[in-house]
Amino acid sequence: MPYTELITLCGFSFLAGFIDAIIGGGGLIQTPAILFTLPQYPIPTLIGTTKIPSLFGSLMGAFQYSRRVAVLGRFIAPMMGIAFCASWLGALTLTLVPNSFMRPLALTILVSVFIYTLLKKDFGQGTPRAVTERQQRQRMWLMGVVIGFYDGFFGPGTGSFLVLGFIALVGFDFLKASAHAKLVNASTNLACTLFFASKGYILYTVAIPMAVANLSGAFLGARLAILKGNQFIRVFFLLVIAATILRFAWDLTR
Prior knowledge:
It is a multi-pass membrane protein. Keywords: Cell membrane, Membrane, Transmembrane, Transmembrane helix, Transport. This protein has one domain. It starts with a helix and ends with a helix. By secondary structure, the chain is an all-alpha fold. The protein has ten helices and no strands. It is globular and about 55 Å long.
């Protein structure tokens, strides 16, 4: 592979890691970049290759957040295990049935999320919600099943859906939601990585340099999000959701 192509992919991977660490959505940058740059390879191989940098970036983001944001360890650990299994099952299901119906469904949900977040100024800004520990546990584990399966079966927007779920269902603010989302996303990325690796769908000579770039971007993105706080993350959330909507809409009209 020409070094120019690898350098280009690493640049996109750095940007993806930066954005993903703040609010999720790095796949919007990284996946199209590799599909466009390396069209000679099968799509499963390219998707599998992006999972390693996504995993590295998620782990870095999770590490940075966990050092500065209180994490519900007794709830999040089981949720990560549930999400791991659900993601593996989703990836396996993808090899058996098409996922074309997911794009219009995800588009509808994202448009609703964007409008709601835009209009509700205090959404995710630290306003306490009356959610009991039992409700938190049940809702987090249910999210692990649903969003974990979604990540393995389809994927785009997983980080944003996790953040939304932690805010709307569990009562977190944006910063705390992002911290927990990174941990869960790391477990789903690990499941997908192991699945694609077992099928031989990874270009390691491409994945490893991209992983280093993604990790570096995630380090800076997480530090910036922690420094700037909830309002900054909210703006990024709206931008990422808008970009996801545009991408899905473009795909549907092609």
